[in-house]
Amino acid sequence: xxxxxxxxxxxxxxxxxxxxxxxxxxxxxxxxxxxxxxxxxxxxxxxxxxxxxxxxxxxxxxxxxxxxxxxxxxxxxxxxxxxxxxxxxxxxxxxxxxxxxxxxxxxxxxxxxxxxxxxxxxxxxxxxxxxxxxxxxxxxxxxxxxxx
Amino acid sequence: xxxxxxxxxxxxxxxxxxxxxxxxxxxxxxxxxxxxxxxxxxxxxxxxxxxxxxxxxxxxxxxxxxxxxxxxxxx
Lengths: 148, 75
Fold this sequence. Notes:
By secondary structure, chain A is mainly alpha-helical. Chain A has four helices and no strands.
């Protein structure tokens, strides 16, 4: 298995773990008693912003650890740059991931149109962000294994 | 994936060039070793520029390194 394939798998697992742990941590803090007030908006705003920051920080740490483990176990250095194949696979993965997010965004807007609670809209948006991340990692893995 | 129509003789040529390693060829062509692996497996059709760079690395014309046709990976 190549470096990029291993990295895609690590990214996939870390995305699932980070999102699951973060959601479990934040869920008890949901303001149940106040329906669609400033407090609720504040909750969802901070939920998304902190999730982004936590994901970035965790991904940097996981990447560093992965590179160290890769060097130790294989005795090889990780690729220092992204060549044309990496860029092409990156673009394909971005296209798929973007398509998933756009579908989620449209569903979220649809939930507002059919008068579902705001909570549903935010959940769909966050879930589509999560799914788009997963789609990107799976697409990357698929193309590195099967080719472009 | 769709059928790869661009095949190559990279593995054979590496062997004929003093058993050049994938990493050495990758360094000469300016790509990562993983891309050479994918090319040899027939999992990737290179850009025209990369195809020329690889041909230059072997000091051969393009058509002696790459070929085009159906079932290219089986030739």
